[in-house]
């Protein structure tokens, strides 16, 4: 059985899609990130 992951849509305050991030990438970055108090959207939107 192969691994399956979701896509996470990062929206701005108006509901516009700013980024699409694979769940695996989001989890890996979040758990390796030392600044966990930051909103997830800041990790993926430049």
List the helices and strands and how they pair.
Layout: E1 7-11, E2 17-22, H1 23-32, H2 40-44
Antiparallel strand pairs: 1-2
The radius of gyration over CA amounts to: 12 Å
The level of helicity is 25-40%
Ends distance: 35 Å
Number of strands: 2
Widest sheet, order of strands: 1-2
Which range does the strand content fall in? 15-25%
Number of helices: 2
What overall geometry do the principal axes of the alpha carbons give? flat
Strand pairing plus helix content: what structural class? alpha+beta
Description:
The protein has two helices and two strands; from the N terminus they run ββαα. It is α+β, with helices and mostly antiparallel strands. The model has no long low-confidence stretch (mean pLDDT 77).
Structure keywords:
2 strands; alpha+beta; two-stranded antiparallel ribbon; single chain; 46 residues
What is the compact description of this entry?
With 46 residues, the chain is α+β, with helices and mostly antiparallel strands. The chain has helices spanning 23-32, 40-44; strands spanning 7-11, 17-22.
């Amino acid at each position: 059985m192969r691994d399956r992951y979701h896509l996470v849509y990062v929206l701005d305050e108006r509901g516009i899609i700013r980024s699409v991030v694979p769940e695996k990438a989001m989890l890996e970055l979040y758990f390796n990130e030392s600044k966990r108090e930051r909103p997830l959207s800041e990790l993926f939107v430049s």
